[in-house]
Amino acid sequence: MSTVRKVGIVGWGAIGRVVGTALAEGRVGGAELVCVVDNRPLGEAAPARQATFEEALEACDLIVEAAGQGVVREWGERVLESGTDLLIASTGALTDEDLAKRMLAAGPGRVYFTSGAVGGLDLLQAARSLGPLDEVRLTTTKLPSTLEQPWMDEELLARMRSTTGPVVVMTGTAREIPVKFPKSTNVAASVALAVGDLDTVRVQVVADPAAHHTRHVIEASGAHGAYRFEVAHLPDPGNPATSQVVPYAVLRSLAALAGQTGQIL
């Protein structure tokens, strides 16, 4: 008989609520929700007991990060060193190469990454085994309000707020962009993880007041082939910086980690 994965969720926001509710309702065979970690008192809002991070490490064998890059930076290594596995939604944290190296070397817990709001990462990872990809481009288009950042000057903010069409907000590599847009560009880091090189992935961030769907276009090519993936998601109504599909990508990853049959791996 297979072992049931004991899961703790960090973050009770747009992602954590959907994932936690599904676990509590028994919709992921082989996994049960043990506790929720959040820096706000949740009371009866959560379907499992609220715990400290330390308590979650004692009680769980799998932690789901659904609270942002800061959690990965502060707790990632400690989770793995405790022997607990870690499923990361905020892949943007791994653009810090020192952190990425330490986490990939840490253990005995294992680290996993969910595909989040984009597809084709499995194919890019397979294609990379044939040889390096010469060119990889990602264009992300979102509503202007979801892309506003504290570092932006008044000129750029005014242009974003007044535009009637698409505006290129920033271009750069997958090393640079997630740092500037920590809540909006985990996709860039995920593509870089699949490709194996932060600097190969060129990213363009576009603000568009007509972007009722968040759009990601990935284009990659190498000596062995060419690939193009395009997705358009409805933003989460509670957190427009996150696509509605993201918690369901986390649930798919959880089902695979729990050994649920029929999963595409």
Looking across the biggest beta sheet, what order are the strands in?
A: 3-2-1-4-5-6
Shape: globular
Helical content class: 25-40%
Q: Structural class from helices and strands?
A: alpha/beta
Measured distance between first and last alpha carbons: 22 Å
Q: Taking all residues together, what is the mean pLDDT? A: 91
* Uncertain stretches of 5 or more adjacent residues: none
Number of strands: 11
Number of helices: 10
- Evaluate the radius of gyration: 19 Å
Order of helices and strands: EHEEHEHEHEHEHHEHHEEEH
Give the biggest beta sheet: 6 strands, parallel
Strand content: 25-35%
Please, could you describe this protein's structure?
- 33% of the residues lie in helices and 26% in strands.
- It contains ten helices and eleven strands.
- The radius of gyration is 19 Å and the shape is globular.
- The mean pLDDT is 91.
